[in-house]
Design brief:
The protein has 26 helices and eight strands.
Length: 553
């Protein structure tokens, strides 16, 4: 049954959509349909601590940054892909000393501080040539009062002054080359011979040579001019960016892309987080970065040190969460924009072209949102599928929603594979474990599946190159070799992985609510799962996995 207003609706044309799923490609709809939330105000307020946007793929991180850039003055946008970090990864000298045991974290911190200081000063004073830089230095010298901190800051500015108008990429290469030169200048003859071999060269060192190389590296790193840069940051706050009416923003996105090796990426992002925290002291400047939640967890895990306290970083995080009514607003605004453009009709909401009545205890809008992980990208994707399957009709009905859901559900399985390719590159293969199951079941039910052993053996048989990168595949190898006692621990790890990626929700106890990784704790530990622990397949995947809803436990 559909609403009586159906006669007033025009025919839905082919190839209509309410925008692109990816904010990078969504310029046609994004700005006109952007929903302002309190998140925007928190980010724009430079006195508020929130400056690291945390969310899963499709949660709206890039959309937020694009909105800030369009509606703010004095914005600097940096992309890691364009910052020449590959030069660091390819540096045989840096690789040599890291393999020899030298901690280069101070250098990575220096790099970010240097980038931010120079970018901000260049932006503020429009420094594009040597003459402009000299004018800035002269203005700065005229106000010197003999203060030690100001003198240190001046020394730093004079040292790098002739480089202020070069590109950020060139600046990173220049700074790295300076460190490489310092390393070479202090190395002895035997060590110099091995420098150009990088990490392989360090592996050939004798214990005595390794000790010498480590000391050389530590001495060079310890001389890095962190104190001078700290004074520059202080000066930025007290004298350069001291007007609260003139705020500056540095925006950094796309940190999850392939711009450096995984190991180097984690170190550079950790240094970026620490530098972002340090720049809080510059009151009218805000560095805002977007990070996928799984990448943040990986960075913190791989770079954890004895002095690090995660709770002290929490105030920096802006974790993106969407309420169902906010997602409905997004849907309504995009549908209204579509109909206004295509048919010159105003004030058309999603519910006006969706069927009345309920399906699975939801109205049609709620049904779509229930299959979205509470993220804008999925809402847009599902609705676009509905439009595609409704071409030639005046309304979307439940049959076309059902047809669209199958395509959408399969698409989300593929998207999960892409999203989690670094941790679980074979995810799409072992997701078949859930095929044909009820929408909810206990862990013991999973353990008793008659085909469970066949699936485990299939996983274990994948070629070693693909398997060595996949956490689940690696732990199934002992099972292939006949160690049947590993079965329970393997299934526990699979359940934890399915929870992490969003395939499964978990009810740890009858008194607990059902938890999903996207709106609760992002990780589940095997020790938390008992035989009676109840597991739930997310509604997004019902159709792709052939879930038996009526047989739910």
């Amino acid at each position: 049954m559909v609403k009586k207003t159906k006669e007033t609706n025009p025919i839905i044309r082919k190839n209509l959509s309410i925008g692109a799923e990816d904010a990078e490609m969504d310029d046609d709809f994004l700005q006109e349909c952007f929903i302002e939330t309190e998140d925007v105000n928190l980010l724009l307020d430079t006195t508020k601590p929130q400056r690291i946007i945390i969310g899963r793929t499709g949660a709206g991180k890039t959309a937020l940054l694009k909105h800030l850039k369009k509606h703010s003055d004095n914005v600097i946008q940096l992309s890691p892909e364009n910052l020449s970090f590959r030069y660091l990864a390819d540096s045989s000298i840096l690789n040599f000393f890291e393999e020899a045991g030298v901690n280069l974290n101070i250098f990575y911190l220096l790099l970010w501080r240097h980038i931010f200081c120079t970018e901000l000063i260049q932006k503020k004073y429009n420094i594009c040539n040597e003459q402009k830089m000299k004018q800035f230095i002269n203005r700065f010298v005229a106000s010197l009062s003999g203060d030690k901190g100001r003198i240190l800051a001046l020394e730093y500015l004079q040292e790098w002054g002739e480089k202020f108008w070069i590109t950020t990429q060139e600046r990173i290469v220049e700074t790295t080359q300076k460190l490489e030169t310092d390393f070479e200048a202090h190395a002895s003859g035997e060590i110099i011979k091995l420098l150009n071999l990088g990490a392989k060269g360090a592996q050939k060192l004798t214990e005595e040579q390794k000790y010498e190389a480590a000391n050389i590296g530590k001495n060079v790193v310890n001389k890095i001019q962190v104190e001078k840069l700290t004074q520059v940051i202080n000066i930025l706050n007290s004298e350069i960016f001291n007007d609260p009416k003139e705020r500056y923003y540095i925006l950094i996105d796309q940190l999850d892309e392939n711009w450096a090796s995984e190991e180097l990426k984690y170190k550079i992002i950790r240094a970026l987080i620490d530098t972002t925290k340090k720049f809080q002291r510059v009151t009218n400047v805000k560095i805002i970065i977007a990070l996928r939640e799984d990448l943040l967890l990986k960075v913190l895990s791989e770079t954890r040190d004895s002095g690090y306290q995660e709770d002290k970083m929490e105030s920096l995080f802006l974790r993106l969460h969407w309420l169902p009514e906010e997602l409905e607003n997004i849907l309504d605004k995009r549908v209204e924009t579509l109909f206004k453009r295509q048919y010159d009709k105003k004030q058309v909401k999603a519910s006006d072209i969706l069927p009345s009545g309920q399906r699975d205890k939801h109205d049609a809008v709620g049904y779509i949102i229930d299959r979205s992980f509470l993220r804008p990208r999925e809402v847009i994707s599902f609705f676009n599928c509905c439009l595609e399957h409704s071409a030639g009709q005046t309304h979307i009905n439940y049959k076309t929603i059902s047809d669209a859901e199958l395509a959408y559900s399969r698409k989300r399985i593929r998207a999960l594979g892409d999203e989690w390719a670094n941790d679980f590159p074979l995810l799409e293969n072992y997701v078949n474990l859930l095929h044909g199951l009820p929408s909810s079941f206990t862990f013991s039910t999973l353990m008793q599946l008659p085909y469970i052993e066949d699936i485990l053996l299939d996983i274990a048989c994948y070629d070693s190159k693909r398997c060595e990168k996949d956490k689940i595949c690696k732990i199934t190898k002992p099972y292939l070799e006949g160690n049947k006692q590993k079965k329970r621990s393997i299934i526990l790890e699979i359940v934890c992985a399915f929870y992490q990626v969003g395939l499964l929700g978990v009810k740890l106890d009858e008194t607990y609510p059902t938890e999903w990784s996207y709106n609760s704790t992002p990780l589940l530990q095997p020790t938390q799962i008992k035989d009676k622990t109840k597991l739930y397949i997310h509604p997004t995947f019902y159709r792709a996995l052939g879930v038996n809803i009526k047989a739910a436990a």
